[in-house]
Design a protein that fits this description.
- The protein is of the alpha/beta class.
- The protein has three domains: 120 residues, no CATH class; 52 residues; 220 residues, no CATH class.
- A twelve-stranded mixed β-sheet has the order 4-5-6-3-2-1-7-8-9-10-11-12.
- The longest helix is centred in the first third of the chain and has 68 residues.
- Pfam families: F-box, FBA_2.
Length: 472
Amino acid sequence: MEKMEIEDAQKAGDEGEGKDDANSLDGSLWAHVTELENVNVSLKEKMKRIRGFEKFVEKSEEVVQNLQKALGDTTLAARKQDLMVAPVEKYCKELRERYEEVRCDGWQEKVLKLMREKAVETVEQLRDECEKAGDENEEEKEELEKENEKLKENNKYFQRLLEEKNVEMADEMARSEAERERLQKKLEEMSALPILKLPIIVLMKILKTIDIDTVILISLCSRKMYHLVKNFRDKSVTLRIEIYGRDSYVRVVTPNGYHEVEVMSGEKEDFRNLEQLNINGHLVPIDRSRKHDHVWETYWDDKVEGLHSVMEYISDLFGIKIVTKITVSLGTMRLLDVLKERQRNVFELATYFRLNEKESHLILDNYPAKVIRISGLPHNFPIGKYLQTVDSLTVNSKVLITLDDLLKMNCVDLFLSRNRFTGTEIKRLLQHWAIGGFKRLKYLELDVEDLNMEDVFGELTHSQMTENRTYK
């Protein structure tokens, strides 16, 4: 009896399959999915197969449902039906679970996407691309490791520099603190100076009787003394400031003498035994051992800054608005910018070295001082055009100049000791001068060859000098 029931169930199952082809296992789809992999297919086709297999697995639930429905139409007992459905249901469940385990991270789609990006069609080609990428990653890793090592070395280097700088800063702070304590002590001592307790009239008389270098020294004692000297000095005395960039000193000229402050280079640590004074905001070592020569020696890290600072201090102390004269070297030419900004072109400029063409144009074009004394210019330098703007010009070398240049000049004084002119040219110049052609000219010095005095001065009203005279 039981054997007949099983045969009936199998027959019913076969009939159920025949009744509904849409609910079958879809044999054609299964055959399509399980096609041999040794056949070359495109990436699009492979993706289609994966999606087809996914649909095939999803239909496993329908297979169980269809089987249960088919068995329900038979005369089999429910227990027999369950026994027949259970293996199929278990298999379909495990199939879905295994498929989910396989595709949980979507690796198939990722691999196919990578193959599409790399334009490869086979697994072997994909493997080659992966190996190549691995080699490139290895090289990149090595480069990154080298760069990392280099950064570590740089970090160690800068760390060492930072530590050294911290030590230097600590030493500098210690020296600054010691200097502050020394100055504080000096200030306390100066507060008891008898001169500060004197009446103003007495102080003014004292300032009139002492020499200029002592006056400057007193002003450096404290800010209070600086203002006392500035306000109550002898203002009837005319003072001048001259800067000598070549020899690096600032000179204060008085009617009866002068005082010089030399600006020298050197490390401050080498002059710790020297007294230090505050000059225009700079604490600098100073040597006054040559006071009988009216010379102080000061030591600076930058000579040009030192000359500038000394000049500013003295000019402010004595109210001197104009620096009368400056001589420059190649290393101190930037002082000309200071004077140009301070007083435009109202100063005397001197150089004691031969200028090249570039330096000549630089000075005469950018710093046209009222008085210029130049040791040497290039032989072919066209000096003529500058005779219109300079009041007094002295050139101790031969330059390129013509008679027409001289006839058009607007100088007060002109000294050209190395250019030779003929007697005829000198006669022409003197005639032009005699009729008022040189409205400002007071003094002219030229070198003349083949001079015939009678021919040159014969037609001119003149007087011969028999003794020295002073012209103002």
